[in-house]
Design a protein that fits this description.
2 copies of one chain form a homodimer.
Chain A lengths: L10 E4 L1 H17 L3 E2 L9 H9 L5 E2 L3 H9 L4 E4 L6 H11 L3 E6 L2 H10 L7 E6 L12 H13 L3 E7 L7 H17 L6 E5 L1 H4 L10 E3 L8 H5 L10 E4 L2 E6 L2 E4 L3 H4 L18 E6 L4 E5 L4
Parallel strand pairs in A: 2-9, 3-4, 4-5, 5-6, 6-7, 7-8, 8-9
Antiparallel strand pairs in A: 1-10, 11-12, 12-14, 13-14
Helix pairs in contact in A: 3-4, 6-7
Chain lengths: 306, 306
């Protein structure tokens, strides 16, 4: 086995034991709370981990793009949820091909999306499962009220090649209770209209750990939980010792006593900080902070003694 | 020729006529000011454009990584500058292979970097050109004083397989005059020590247009100038009508009167805003602003009437 010193940098290192422990821990939590787990694979994009997640008990996987779903289908994953409005002839044709080989479900939040789906999927013997996306506070996609959800659910239910699959939301961080109340209202109104929610699907790693048995949510789509990161740690989900993904970098310059430059910049470390200060932790170097990024350089500020 | 409606989204669109006009304009400016142009290809990463830049009069190209340089060498580019401290056996071996097939130059700002280069390049008949990187105010890599530059220049000059190529800097934005004074001091001290600066290389698109004949800089490495972007427009370099690269997106959701969601998020549009407010301009839609990004969603806020 090669030594870490043989690796060219920047390199992503994955601690497989930690990732497996994170998979098991989330599955145990879901099992204990009667939740089905449908991990979001956009965090890792690796069939290797998707299969591990399913083997641990997940009911299937979640993908964000058709391209991701195609890769996972090629690798043998059998139950794929694509919670996205799929629009346009090119993507609808790929979606139809995918539906021919895996158990597929998607979402819609508009009549426009449903028109495309209904025109593409017309086989009553093999309908496409469509969940209604609900904006329960996140302010992104989704119908704005339970009444709108019912309207779309009826359209789905009446389309020959579609079947109503339930409700889906990506809740605002920390507002799972508000989302739950929204979804419960919609679920009960749908039931009164004779439409059963087979699935009520929610997502977001931090809130998963706060979801309990009193929720109407039936399935959860955590993504980041497999590797965790410093944002999750800041939100109280595990510690840095639970984080399974790190970037191995080389110090390429040390121009002053308080400044070091890494060969890992915004492309290797991400400039997407989710509001956290600075750009990363340096493991094992107390007092060293990544204070700036350009594309191929990371600037580290060293405090005294670091 | 396919219509724009046939393109799947998100898609990058490049207006070739605008890019060619930007190439010509920069070359004309450089020619008028006695500057050599050595465009940075990390903006486009396309041999097609690198060849156009050289055909327009550039003396060669600049790459930020060995992998980029290898692609450009494979495509027939013949003069490549890699302004980076190259460290470690794997990269030094690739650098040596590259030196065997193109006119190559690199930079160094430390004895550690020079030790690796001197141990790898030992052929006095075909030396590697090494420029000293100077921190003239940017606060990233580079020696901190002209005196340090002279020390390293002497080490390069005395290494059998290396030749001293001059000075290189990436100046702090808007502080080109300060950088120029720094470089002039170093150049004159090097000359007094018998070391000629064959090249004094500077970079950064906005400041290129302010560089004049009174500068000690002999070559410029602009990158973004080929496509421009809203940061350059904010800095007064051209207008949105000069920008050659746009992203074609689809509105996948329009959940409220004031909110639309694009299929283009941080991966398609970049979360790297360089300090600009918000995340992009929507061409032809006055009053619409990209106010939020997640990985595969862009949130657009629409003012009244947009």
């Amino acid at each position: 086995m090669p030594s870490i010193d043989d690796l060219d940098t920047p390199a992503i290192l994955i601690d497989a034991a930690r990732a497996e422990a994170n998979i098991k821990k989330a599955q145990a939590h879901a099992d204990a709370h009667g939740l089905k787990l449908r991990p979001h694979i956009k965090t890792h994009k690796l069939p290797y981990w998707a299969k591990k997640q399913v083997a641990a008990g997940a009911v299937g996987i979640t993908c964000q793009k058709i391209g991701e779903a195609e890769v996972m289908a090629d690798a043998g994953l059998e139950d794929i949820f694509l919670p996205y409005n799929i629009l346009g002839r090119a993507k609808l044709e790929r979606l139809k091909a995918l539906h021919g080989r895996v158990t597929l479900s998607v979402t819609a939040d508009s009549h426009e999306t449903l028109e495309g789906l209904a025109a593409t999927f017309t086989d009553a013997g093999h309908p496409l499962s469509v969940l209604v996306e609900c904006d329960t506070g996140m302010g992104r996609c989704g119908v704005q009220s339970p009444a709108e959800a019912i309207t779309l659910a009826k359209v789905i239910d009446q389309a020959k090649g579609l079947s109503f699959g339930g409700l889906m939301t990506y809740p605002a961080a920390g507002r799972a209770a508000e989302a739950d109340a929204w979804l419960k209202t919609a679920r009960d109104a749908l039931a009164a209209a004779g439409l059963e929610c087979k699935r009520i699907s929610s997502g977001g790693t931090p809130d998963m750990w706060r979801s309990g048995k009193d929720s109407v949510v039936t399935e959860y789509r955590p993504g980041t939980y497999i590797y965790l990161d410093r944002y999750q740690v800041a939100k109280g989900v595990g510690t840095l010792d639970d984080c399974a993904l790190t970037v191995l970098a080389t110090v390429v310059s040390h121009p002053t006593a308080s400044r070091a430059i890494l060969d890992s910049g915004s492309k290797a470390l991400s400039s997407d900080t989710l509001g956290l200060p600075e750009f990363g932790e340096l493991l094992g170097v107390p007092g060293a902070r990544v204070t700036g990024l350009s594309e191929e350089h990371g600037t580290v500020t060293l405090s005294d003694g670091a």
